[in-house]
Specification:
With 451 residues, the chain is of the alpha+beta class. It is built from ten helices and 28 strands. 17% of the residues lie in helices and 35% in strands. It comes from Xanthoceras sorbifolium.
């Protein structure tokens, strides 16, 4: 009836006289529910609101142009309705897992490890750390599903460590801190660069960053992320004598990445001291902190947004009741991974609980559900936020192990997630001297298996 009524007055409606490109501009200003409702008004608007060009623009708006362009440039990309892709990710309920480890042992592979780093930069996977002072690089390019050939490369003067952070800043890697075999904490900052040569193959070079006389206290098991092309933020970790820290520091990098400066950010309120948590940039001015182990050795499940503006950084806690979420009692964890994936979702995998029971579950934290509401409303309406922000996903295909202190990273588009290593149970690899067992498997997680 509404459609018929609208059509009878179509000639008298100002919006019906707008050119199609102007209507598309209007639709791009609307939330998705309004776009879909608009499509129901008449045949002309239904065609426009369902057009592939409009939905590609919506994907660019909500996911960022870099993710869309990276997705389109992949050789896994096929012509597909962007509307279907958008709806699939909004309704995401499962992921498909594959193993990329060599079953025949015919290739040189990184040794099993945990609390290392794994990053995707310059079309390569870069792995570094644990007790080994080695770096490994595997070129991927656009073929994300193939078996990888790892190359061991020199770490130069960068010493072996674990529990460090290594994040991508532009085309570079930035390492801070970590713990060596003797239990000593570091507070040095390094910059790494991957280069591909016709004759030399893939190389990785590290240089110590000059940060002057001010730096965060030494630590390991902290969390870090890049908040723009020139700034890195770290939070928490374990300092001297195993004391957990709750401070927040920002690194300002020079344009040529040759030097930088650290300064501490003090904000009230702010997350409690912790280690083994995650801090992930989610676009715009926001990063998300989740979980970790607190001062009393308890495992946490709190969620904090770090709001960054040109003049200040502010922590905002997002309150929710995990008792209202199906399976939410399993949410508290430490040693998990939290990775931004296609669709603006935060994919959380693995970790362990207070009793060191390791997990193999996947969760999506929908930051869009929180960001669409003002912070004050989110705090007041915790039941609605709880229902909308968390969802547990099914894992199909290859069954992943229960593991913690593994590392994960996504390709440029966010469609594929790579997971390597971690602490595991029941593995035949020789145990470390203090009883820990490490994994050396590379796992590929695909969000869109039907492509």
């Amino acid at each position: 009836m509404a459609e018929t009524s609208y059509n009878n007055n179509n000639n008298g409606s100002p919006i019906s006289n707008l050119a199609q490109d102007h209507l598309s501009t209007v639709l791009l200003c609307l939330p998705i529910d309004s776009v879909l409702s608009f499509a129901m008004t008449c045949k002309r608007f239904r065609s426009l609101a369902s057009s592939d060009a409009l939905w590609e623009s919506i994907c660019r708006r909500d996911w960022g142009p870099k993710s869309v362009e990276a997705f389109k440039s992949s050789n896994q990309y096929h012509v597909l309705p962007w509307m279907r892709l958008y709806k699939h990710l909004c309704q995401l309920d499962s992921v498909t897992c594959h193993t990329l480890s060599d079953p025949d042992g015919g290739f040189l592979l990184p040794n099993p490890r945990a609390s290392h780093s794994l990053n995707f930069v310059s079309d390569c996977l870069v792995l570094f750390g644990r007790h080994l002072d080695d770096s490994w690089v595997a070129y991927i390019g656009n073929d994300f599903r193939r078996m990888l050939t790892w190359h061991k490369v020199s770490s130069g003067t960068l010493s072996g460590r674990f529990g460090h952070t290594c994040i991508v800043v532009g085309d570079y890697l930035v390492i801070f801190g970590g713990i060596n075999d003797r239990g000593n904490r570091h507070n040095d900052t390094w910059v790494g660069e991957v280069a591909c040569h016709e004759n030399l193959g893939v190389t990785l070079s590290w240089k110590l960053l000059d940060v002057g006389s001010i730096a965060p206290p030494p630590r390991g098991a902290h969390a870090a992320c890049c908040i723009d092309n020139r700034r890195v933020v770290i939070h928490g970790g374990m300092g001297f004598h195993g004391v957990r820290l709750g401070d927040t520091w920002v690194l300002e990098l020079s344009e040529n990445y040759c030097f930088g400066s650290w300064h501490e950010v003090v904000s009230h309120p702010s997350p409690a001291a912790r280690s083994g948590h995650s801090l992930t940039y989610i676009g715009g001015n926001r990063s998300v902190l989740f979980g970790g182990r607190g001062l009393g050795y308890e495992v946490l499940n709190d969620v904090w947004f770090l709001d960054v503006s040109a003049s200040s950084l502010k922590w905002v806690q997002i309150l929710y009741d995990f008792q209202n979420i199906p399976g939410g009692v399993t949410l508290p964890r430490v040693g998990h991974s939290a990775t931004l994936i296609l669709g603006g979702l935060l994919l959380i995998y693995g970790g362990e609980d207070t009793y060191r029971h390791r997990k193999d579950d996947f969760w999506v934290l929908d930051t869009n559900a929180v960001q669409s509401t003002s912070m004050q409303q989110a705090i007041l309406n915790t039941k609605r936020v709880s229902r909308n922000m968390w969802k547990r996903l099914k894992a199909e295909g290859y069954k992943p192990k229960c593991q913690s202190f593994h590392r994960a990273c996504a390709d440029y588009s966010g469609r594929f997630l790579y997971v390597f290593g971690g602490m595991v149970d029941g593995i035949v690899h020789p145990a470390e001297s203090y009883g820990l067992r490490f994994d050396g498997e590379l796992l590929l997680v695909d969000l869109i298996p039907w492509l």
